[in-house]
Amino acid sequence: MKIPKSLDNYQYGFAMPSKPVFKSKKGLSEKRVLEISSLKGEPDWMKDFRLRSLQIFQKKKMPRWGGDLAKINFNEIVYFSRATEGSSPTWQDLPPEIRKTYEKIGIPQAEKDFLSGVSAQYDSEVVYESIQKELTKQGVIFCDTDTAVKKYPDIVRQYFGTLIPASDNKFAALNSAAWSGGSFVYVPKGVKVVLPLQAYFRINSQNFGQFERTLIIAEPNSEIHYIEGCTAPIYSAKSLHAAVVEIFVKKGARVRYTTVQNWSKNVYNLVTKRARVDQDGIMEWIDCNLGSAITMKYPSCYLMGKRARGEVLSIALAGQNQHQDAGAKMLHFAPKTSSRIISKSISKQGGRTSYRGLVQVFPGAKNASSFVSCDALILDEKSRSDTYPVLRIKEKDVQIQHEATVERLGEEKLFYLNSRGINKEDAASLLVNGFIEPVAKEIPLEYAVELNRLINLEMKGTVG
Amino acid sequence: MIKFIDVIKSRRREYRIDEKATFVFFLYNYSGRLRIKIQAAGARVYIFSIFIGRGKDLFRLQVLQQHLSPQTFSEALVKGVFYDEAKLIYEGLIKIEKSAQGSHAYQKNQNLLMSKRGFVESRPSLEILANDVFCTHGSTTGRLNSDQLFYLRSRGLTKPQAQNLLIKGFLKEVFEKIENLGHFPELEKYQDRLN
């Protein structure tokens, strides 16, 4: 695999030669699904689940809204490949190539500093896991989902696919049939995990789709912060990423799920994320979408119990040939449930950002309240920004608010910074970083720093 | 120059704004489509809509504010009060084309739900293809402010009296905004319905 010279020094994307131990043939069929399942040595219930999902996938139509997905060819995708045999217990056991990729992103230092557990994904399977003793002592389970199916079948079976059934949408069905890897987190009752759990994901094989499956269960009064950071190498062929994330927030529990997504600019990122929140539970999605060709992602909260709370804070940045179609869904089923959505989007150099959201209040959800705020910046005349909110209210004792603004960088602010000796480019970066600050401050420091650098890099050459 | 258009009377669903003037569109319990294409640079368009829904009323309003020329302005204000099983489905779209630099557009939808069986669906959308613009939209749905109700009742008003007063004030904002633009005798018969 040769990398074009011009991309050699691209700071935030890497390409390593891919040497999979096993790679399935292109395309998806019943035979291929059975092959994946038997290679993984899965129990029958999972095999049947995959086969049922495949049928649903084949019947389901492509969504007729959102990004243009016409160029996805499902028959040209490799649905499963294995980078090393099984999971490696330590860094030293990893193949040098994989280690090199990770060192470029800086995992080892990060880990030394303050990671509590790393589960890094290379190709479709988790190859490295390090779980600190403390986590195990607390009874917290943190492993890849494949391992969880084997080691904790009772827990997995009880929850897997119940929140996002295969029939939810075409890409959830695809994931259900072909899933591989992803994280499984189980936090026992009353346990508060202080340090965030992190998993790094990378797509590293041309034309190779990644279908990871994440399941998080937070038992009553527990707390957990999960971080997924994605950086992908640059490739010429289209790649597909269709993940499914299911989260169960039990009574009084609190879960925060942070995503920093920087797929290379040819990836289709079509992800289904959903959380069920019971009484007094809190679910927070923090979602930064920077890379990919097309992203369609709408993290949602099903607020099922009294006083359950849901939040989505998101940032979207779309440059040339990018369409970020992202948003959030809040469904209020119970009294006194509350939700908040803050969305910040930036489009530049012909990029397009779309906010698509839903707030729905069902009968009986008395005293529910919801606040939605979407701000968009358009940096040049080639770019575009859309806002498509839906507010559906079937209960009278509610307070539902939505607001949105679209504007450009303030001339006066730019002029002021300019007059203080800051050049135009830096001034624009400063203003954009200020614009996303309300969301960026919620992200852990190392990601916020990377985000800040990335924005500065992206802003180079955008102001004439 | 200001022109006043009672959309129910004129019955037209599509309007092309070809002159640099101010246009005021008024809609009362109007169900249907309204498409306004602003083609004259510097033109200003106001859209005011009131709904008072009772019984099994079902309103479906679609409003398009399409800006095709530079320095154009539009503002939509849609206010509704829904009793019994009355329902509203509102779809608003502000579309600013590339050719409409320097435009401003606003869209606001506010609803009061007076009954448990009422239903409101609000979809205030934006599609912005130019960068030198300022656009906002807002949507709120809920009940009457309980502090305000409490205050009025502490002053001796009965609950229905207090509610009526607050609802009147809520809807009156529309008429006051129109008054600020000019006096239109056509509006009086609608104003009477508030009493």
Automatic annotation (TrEMBL), chain A:
InterPro entries: Fe-S_cluster_assembly_SufBD, SUF_FeS_clus_asmbl_SufB, SUF_FeS_clus_asmbl_SufBD_core, SUF_FeS_clus_asmbl_SufBD_sf, SufBD_N. GO terms for biological process: iron-sulfur cluster assembly. Residues 201-435 form the SUF system FeS cluster assembly SufBD core domain. Residues 128-198 form the SUF system FeS cluster assembly SufBD N-terminal domain. PANTHER family: FES CLUSTER ASSEMBLY PROTEIN SUF, UPF0051 PROTEIN ABCI8, CHLOROPLASTIC-RELATED. NCBIfam families: sufB. Belongs to the iron-sulfur cluster assembly SufBD family. This is Fe-S cluster assembly protein SufB. It comes from Candidatus Wildermuthbacteria bacterium GWA2_46_15.
From TrEMBL, chain B:
InterPro entries: Fe-S_cluster_assembly_SufBD (IPR055346), SUF_FeS_clus_asmbl_SufBD_core (IPR000825), SUF_FeS_clus_asmbl_SufBD_sf (IPR037284). GO terms for biological process: iron-sulfur cluster assembly. It comes from the Bacteria. Residues 34-170 form the SUF system FeS cluster assembly SufBD core domain. Pfam families: SUFBD_core. PANTHER family: PROTEIN ABCI7, CHLOROPLASTIC (PTHR43575:SF1). This is SUF system FeS cluster assembly SufBD core domain-containing protein. It comes from Candidatus Wildermuthbacteria bacterium GWA2_46_15. The lineage of its organism: Bacteria, Candidatus Wildermuthiibacteriota.
